[in-house]
Amino acid sequence: MKLTATINGVRRTLEVAPRALLIDALRDAGYTSVKRGCETGDCGACTVLVDGVPLASCVVFAGQVEGRVLTTVEGLGTPDRPHPLMEAMVDAGAVQCGFCTPGMILSAKALLDENPDPTAADVKDALDGHLCRCTGYVKQIEAVLDAAARLRTRAAAGGGAR
Amino acid sequence: MSDPRPFRTVGTSPRKVDALGMAAGAAAYVDDVAISGMLHAKFLWSPHAHARITRIDASRARALPGVVCVLTHHDVPRILHTTAGQGYPEPSPYDTLMLDSKVRYVGDRVAAVAAETRAIAEEALGLIDVEYEVLPPVLDMERAMDPGAPVIHDEPDARAVIPVPYEPQRNLAGHVDMQIGDPEKAFAAAPVQVDVTCHTHYGQHTPIEPHVTICWLDADNRLIIRTSTQVPFHVRRIVAQSCDIPVRRIRVIKPRIGGGFGVKQEVLEDLVAMLALKTGRPVKHEYTRAEEFVSSRTRHPSRVRVRLGLEADGKPVAIDLDVLTNTGAYGSHALTVACNCGSKTLPLYPCPNVGFRADSVYTNLPVGGAYRGYGATQAAFPMEVAMDIAAERLGVDPVELRRKIHIREGQGSDVFRALGEGKAGVVQKIGSCKLDECLDRGAVAIGWSEKRGRDRHSPKLVKLGVGMCALMQGSSIPEIDMGAASLKMNDDGSFNLLVGATDLGTGSDTVLAQIAAEALGVSLDHVIVYSSDTDLTPFDVGAYASSTTYLSGEAVRKAAVIVRGQVLQVAAEILGLPPGDVDQLRTEAGEVIAPDARRVTFAQVALRSLYDADQHQIASFASHISHASPPPFAAHFAEVEVDTETGFCRVVKYVAAVDCGTAINPKLAEGQTEGAVLNGISYALTEELLFDQAGRCRNPSFGHYKIFSTRDLPEMVTIHVPSYEPTGPYGAKSVSEISINGPLPAIANAIYDAIGVRLFQPPFTPERILAALKGVAPPSQPPSLKNGSR
Ligand code: FES
Ligand code: FES
User: Fold this and answer.
1) What is the pTM of this model?
2) Which whole-number Å values give the CA distances from A147 to A104, B22, B746, in the listed order?
3) How far is the CA of B346 from the CAs of B396, B428, B745, B781, in angstroms?
4) Can you name the residues that pair with B200 across neighbouring β-strands?
5) Interface test with A, best of B13, B22, B668 (most A CBs within 10 A)
6) Residue B775 — very low, low, confident or very high, per pLDDT cuts 50/70/90?
7) Do domains B19-27+482-625 and B298-477+628-785 have the same CATH topology?
8) DSSP single-letter state for residue B461
9) What is the pLDDT at residue B785?
């Protein structure tokens, strides 16, 4: 069957198996930042934004997102043009193995889109359920607060947030 | 090596070299490449804890369209080996077959399928007809060596390959003992005696990336193994052994790895390799999370009894450690984890009379393996609880007791000499120890003197308490582990640093590049680090035993010193200096600087050496083994809140003060400490694999095996107390493992401070805390048979 959706700003039609999970549809199409940590909706590694809302793509059928707007980390930035959240994660030392990082960045993005000036408690709530076994989360929380500040500065300078 | 301080790159926290790519979602991990024609593998797992396969018929599975290969024990070589990714000859017994006619735990391998899609492979598993003769299982480690207990490894050829006790007919997978002085006599005379027995439970590493392996044959018919491993060179050797092909036919590639913590020190790639060899096609296998929990590896559960005999002034006169660990169905790391229960705790408190005995037994439960902490986790818990009890009996502050009796710089320990890994140890003296400063700064950070004992006798229902512990670990396995590195210079004055050392998310690539940059006198971006590929990078034992920074780091430093010498030779030629004047040159920021301030850039040196005169490749190799395993030291402090009505215990604040020598990259070192602490806290409070009466794991999912997330986070304080380890690169020793050992004892001691009861059996669940408060005896059944609390 076919899945048509806007993925990272590009309208795409993917050939997917009838009962394919969204995680597999995306990974097979080359969006390998979507990581598989459990396939039971418990780890957050496979998070994507669907119409701006973080969703575990391992518990969603590809067919359920027909016509929707999907964002993966590839859509936020590249190593040459990194999103402030990426830079903040790197600068804070929050990326150890990095397997949890794309999912966390997307949930953080959804938070900052809603709330550009979050408290540490807001960040903890937004990242809860993104399991990371390498870090103690301290640096991720720091990074999201730092990215929020960077984005606010940029917005104040008229740059606008991506 | 003379003290090279001040440093230029070492001791700073530049960006982790691979972090931006990973944050941007680069396709860097094992499963991020697509290989055309790739088959998907699934394994059939045993439903029984202990059974013989009397008949196995895969013909219906083979007939399913899309199935390309099915392997049962009839189809693979019968070669006993160990899955423990250790040096050769391994201290773990050869008791494992790729596929066997006997299964030894629920989750053991029965058969393997490779098919065009994962769905077909899964369907095919259901079409494999297996008949079992079910055997009585051993599910209680305490009963494993009872006379008449079922024998788990009754195959006649199971054996140890080094001269160590191994008695599979008694279910004894490993044994070690040693004695210094006369502990029993000293006990009898000791004015203060403490006797504590603690248990630790089944835990799993849960790297967020499970084990994943892709194998294929290249154009030259060589077997390529792209795999999530901590030990690429051991994978090459052990897969060659179990597939019965030459080492030279195998190339192991370790790309970015999504965490390991020891579980990827296990060589589980053999069956995927065999599927690729049999089919001639690329084959991928990825553990599901449930499979990762049960069928990869776990932390060896343990029962450890500590007896302390102390003088009235607190000086230990006798310490005795009696250890039983459960290695599960196979003896992976059985002996060495048991050894480490002693070797990573006993030297901390010098004592003239020391006894240590450890048995590791087989049971029909999941297999133990290497897990961060590696025995120190199991034994530091009772040791540090015993010290807390001793302090109370002596009427001294627990911090002061540790301060008085811990090992100091310049001191040795007979334990270092007596206890190695499967053989005698190595004599060593402590070259660096700033434990006193860890104790001081940690105590201040937690508010020790103000908070201690504050709620014990209050009528409050929710009580606060503080507890602490002292810790040590090691840095590499002395005179066994080897790390090597090579460097070569490029046109622009940059260098390729090739290391067999395995960055599995720890940041070791960055740390090793910083060491090279420091030694060379170039900026970090001029060191391009690559790890690891058995065809390209020099040998390294891999990422385990807290060895990479200390051991591989020194190999890198040596290689860089050699290459720097070559650079200076060429620079001297350019400057027209006589060769004898090379010593007067220095390097800084990618330039060679002469005493008269003339400068030559590294790029000029490279271009001359490659294109201009006396052309040659500036390059080097260096290897390193260590004759010591310098311990990092730590003092950990926990503040807890215990609800005496519900039994719920929350960690409010946790302080880890760690002496890891020079922190090559302080931010990454902090990350290691924070990660280890949080893993330790969640092991102490919530994580536990539970089993039913048939040995089936009841909670193999993140939904039912609770690891901490952001909302569970206490306030975390990390303090790195610098010391200078004379045998390490730029004064470094290890940091990654030590801090996972602190939470069990620090939290147990804090709970005691809050509510006045001691817990000897983690995780410290509300049920256990309430039972302890009511004075009910702790459950006598081993945790493996206890009904769960979830
Ligand atoms: S893979 Fe989807 S939540 Fe874990
Ligand atoms: S950085 Fe490894 S899981 Fe988060």
Assistant:
1) 0.96
2) 13, 17, 35
3) 21, 14, 16, 28
4) B302
5) B22
6) confident
7) yes
8) S
9) 39
DSSP assignment string, B514-569: HHHHHHHT--GGGEEEE--BTTTSPPB--S-TT-IIIIIHHHHHHHHHHHHHHHHH
The total of other beta-carbon atoms located within 10 Å of residue B101's CB is 16
Q: How far is the CA of A57 from the centre of ligand 1 (A)?
A: 7
Output the CA B432–ligand 1 centroid distance in Å.
44
CB of B8 closer than 8 Å to CB of B586? no
Nearest residue to B441 (alpha-carbon basis) of B191, B706, B636: B636
- Domains of chain A as residue ranges with CATH: 2-75 (3.10.20.30), 84-156 (1.10.150.120)
Q: SS3 sequence, B54-69?
A: EEEECHHHHHCCCEEE
Element (H, E) at B572: helix B553-575
The token pair that represents B176 in the structure block: 């070690």
Measured by CA distance, the residue closest to atom 4 of ligand 2 is A132
- Residue B229 near residue B261 (C-beta atoms within 8 A): no
A7 close to B (CB below 8 A): no
For residues B73 and B44, is the Cβ–Cβ distance under 8 A? no
Is residue A112 within 8 Å of residue A52, measured between CB atoms? no
CA B398 to chain A, closest CA, distance in angstroms equals 27
Do B63 and B113 meet the contact criterion of CB atoms below 8 Å apart?
no
| Backbone phi and psi for residue A81, each to the nearest 5 degrees, phi listed first | -125, 70
- Phi, psi angle pair for A16, to nearest 5°: -130, 155
CA distance B105 to B366: 6
Would you state the torsion angle of the CA atoms of residues B138, B140, B144, B148, taken in this order, to the nearest 10 degrees? -60
Give the C-alpha separation, B466 to B721, whole Å. Answer: 21
Q: Which ligand lies nearest the alpha carbon of B208? A: 2
3-state secondary structure labels for all residues of B175-243: EEEEEECCHHHHHHHCCEEEEEEEEECCECCCCCCCCEEEEEECCCCCEEEEECCCCHHHHHHHHHHHH
Helix (H) or strand (E) holding B504: none
CATH topology of domain B19-27+482-625: Aldehyde Oxidoreductase; domain 4 (3.30.365)
In the stretch 94-123 of chain A, residues with CB closer than 8 A to chain B read: 94-102, 105, 123
Secondary structure (DSSP) of chain A: -EEEEEETTEEEEEE--TT-BHHHHHHHTT-TTS--S-SSS-S-TTEEEETTEEEEGGGSBGGGGTT-EEE-GGGT--SSS--HHHHHHHHHT--SS-SSHHHHHHHHHHHHHH-SS--HHHHHHHHTT---SSS-SHHHHHHHHHHHHHHHHHHHTT----
**Half-sphere exposure of residue B137: CA atoms within 13 angstroms, side-chain side:** 27
Question: How confident is the model over B280-290, as pLDDT tens digits?
Answer: 999 999 999 99
Give the closest residue to B553 by CA, choosing from B494, B511, B505: B511
Type of residue numbered B272: V
pLDDT, tens digit, 9 for 90 and up, residues B600-623: 999 999 999 999 999 999 999 999
CATH class of B298-477+628-785: alpha beta
Q: How high does pLDDT run on average in chain B?
A: 95
Inter-residue contact B689 to B371 (CB < 8 Å): no
Q: Does the predicted interface ipTM exceed a cut of 0.85?
A: yes
Partners of residue B656 on adjacent β-strands: B636, B718
Chain B CB within 8 Å of residue A57 CB: no
* Fold of domain B33-135+205-295: Aldehyde Oxidoreductase; domain 3 (3.90.1170)
Selection from B533, B535, B531, B536 nearest residue B556 by Cα:
B531
- From chain A, the residues in CB contact with B504 under 8 A are 97
Largest CA distance in chain B: 86
Count of positions (residues) in chain B? 790
